[in-house]
Write a structure and sequence with these properties.
alpha/beta, 532 residues, 20 strands, Rossmann fold
Length: 532
């Protein structure tokens, strides 16, 4: 093996970057997205290796492992950061020969053992003291059912954790690597920060707070500062040590900036983490005195996702399309356009109760048996036959409905909230509250807000209160909504129904008592209970 000088490694890194760009260009963005192949930026790889080496206990020889090697961004950084003589062993796994074969040639004269195989199928045979990895960001729906069953069973057997079927492939990499680590070894994981907030991240958080490892540090990058040019994902670097947490241990949480120069840093006791449903609140919430939330939106509303059709292009039609095909109007109900096409926040009703929008849309929702359809509505039967030919009826949602072209019950909501949105430096709110006067329902790009029965009865007799509620919804502190939700790369914010339901309803309470007092002599006990 040739002895290489530091200057040789700088030249080798330039060659690696050129190779990475060439190999990426030979694949379509769709293919790389499906396989979760997002290369680590060179500057970030350098920072991660520097931090990892600093976390090792002493100057013992480095036994390095990268379970998702790619072209070797972390290995290249290691060679430029650590004296050659200190690297006792370096191992990599790369499942895709498109990258692995070229990487093996690139690093052939260095102390690297690169396996062109699937890390999740490998038998632990080493005990690395430094694992650094950017695991493939493969979303759960791109993990085959057979692989998912295998991976969940393997993780359960090796770690005791039962990962949700919604977990991305990165979660399996993180937990499976545990059995490879040497005592007091260090692992650094560049992964999506979504695990910090979502329900399917609970098993990962349990592992990080368990008895086998010490969670040292989590650096969450500013979502507006996307780390990967080709993936809109909010990233975090998680550092852990293979040893039980010492008494009184606190985890360092950093946010923004770079790994070595974060914008905000604080320490969070393990007990606080165990009691926190959302870790993305740290470090900002760690310095804020706890406040009593009191009444939340769920005390006033039942909040549901909009209609999940399974195929909006097939089930949502314009009036022109319905007329051209001579489809029966009774098989459709009005539906609001998606947020990008709805430029107003107050939707008025036309004389027929439909929404006053430039291009009205309608949702196919019919329960006539398919065998009867050819006799009663031959044109609609022909349209459904087109859907069958496209395989619409075999989709996950459609195949579980009877008949497959019926929809879940979602009456017209009086209020809606957009499901996703971006903030802006100009002060644009990431979420919009919409007042709906029409009979239109909405698809699952909205959250539908239905007044609880007691409140709906009173407001039906006092229409002015409905507008006051809408105006109060618009005054909810946007930061409170953002803290309840989650954020993705590029500043894309998202709210699930339960997250919106947990938002404080103080602004609404300012409206309701006075409005109801003016409308009724005895305000309903609902509001008295809500104040408790």
């Amino acid at each position: 093996m040739t002895i290489l000088r530091p200057s040789d490694f700088e030249e080798r890194e330039r060659r690696r970057l050129s190779l990475q760009a060439s190999l990426d260009a030979q694949k379509s963005p769709t293919e790389r997205n499906r396989l979760g192949q997002f290369a680590t930026p060179a500057a970030l790889a350098d920072e991660i290796i520097h931090v990892g080496i600093g976390l090792l206990d002493d100057q013992r020889p480095v036994r390095f492992l990268d379970p998702a090697f790619g072209t070797g961004a972390f290995y290249s950084a290691l060679l430029r950061c650590v004296p050659h003589a200190r690297i006792a062993r370096a191992t990599g796994f790369e499942i895709d020969p498109h990258y692995g074969t070229a990487a093996r040639d690139l690093w052939a004269d260095t102390p690297l053992n690169l396996m062109l195989e699937d890390f999740t199928r490998a038998t632990p045979s080493q005990r690395p003291n430094l694992i650094v990895c950017n695991p493939p960001y493969v979303r759960h729906h791109h993990v085959g059912n057979g692989d998912k069953v295998r991976l969940r069973a393997l993780v359960k057997r090796l770690s005791g954790e039962d990962l949700s079927g919604l977990t991305g492939l990165y979660g399996y990499f993180l937990l499976l690597a545990d059995v490879w680590m040497s005592p007091r070894g260090i692992a650094g994981w560049l992964i999506p920060s979504e695990f910090m907030d979502v329900n399917y991240g609970r098993a990962i958080k349990r592992y990080l707070l368990g008895n086998n490892v010490t969670l040292l540090r989590i650096h969450r990058f500013d979502p507006h500062d996307v780390q990967f040019d080709d993936a809109l994902v909010s990233s975090a670097v998680v550092w852990l040590r293979k040893s039980p947490s010492p008494p009184g241990h606190a985890v360092e949480f950093a946010f923004g900036g770079s790994l070595t120069k974060p914008s905000v840093v604080t320490s969070v006791p393990l007990s606080d983490l165990r009691n926190a449903a959302k870790w993305s609140r740290f470090p900002s919430d760690a310095t804020r005195a706890p406040t009593r939330v009191g009444v939340t939106l769920k005390d006033l509303f039942a909040i549901k996702r909009g209609v999940a059709t399974g195929d909006n292009k097939f089930f949502v039609l314009s009036r022109d399309m319905i007329n051209e095909r001579q489809l029966p109007r009774e098989a459709f109900r009005p539906v609001l356009p998606p947020p990008r096409g709805l430029l107003i926040d107050e939707v008025r009703a036309d004389p027929m109760g439909g929404p006053e929008v430039p291009t009205p849309l309608f949702l196919l929702d019919c329960r006539i048996p398919e065998a009867q359809m050819a006799h009663d509505h031959p044109q609609l039967a022909a349209y459904l036959a087109e859907g069958r030919a496209r395989g619409v009826h075999e989709g996950y949602l459609c195949s579980r409905r009877s008949p497959w072209y019926s929809q879940e019950s979602r009456p017209a909501p009086p209020f809606l909230c957009t499901y996703m949105g971006r903030g802006s430096l100009g002060g644009r709110r990431p979420f919009r509250f919409i007042l709906n006067h029409s009979l239109a329902t909405a698809t699952n790009v909205y959250l539908l807000m239905y007044l609880l029965p007691e409140l709906a009865t009173v407001i039906a007799a006092n229409p002015g209160v409905k507008r006051s509620l809408w105006e109060a919804l618009q005054r909810i502190d946007v930061d409170q909504l953002v803290r309840e939700g989650r954020v993705y790369g590029g500043g894309l914010h998202k709210l699930e129904p339960k997250e919106l339901a947990n938002a404080p309803a103080g602004e609404l309470l300012k409206v309701l008592p006075a409005s109801l007092a003016a409308a009724t002599s005895n305000p309903p006990e609902l509001f008295a209970a809500a104040h408790k």
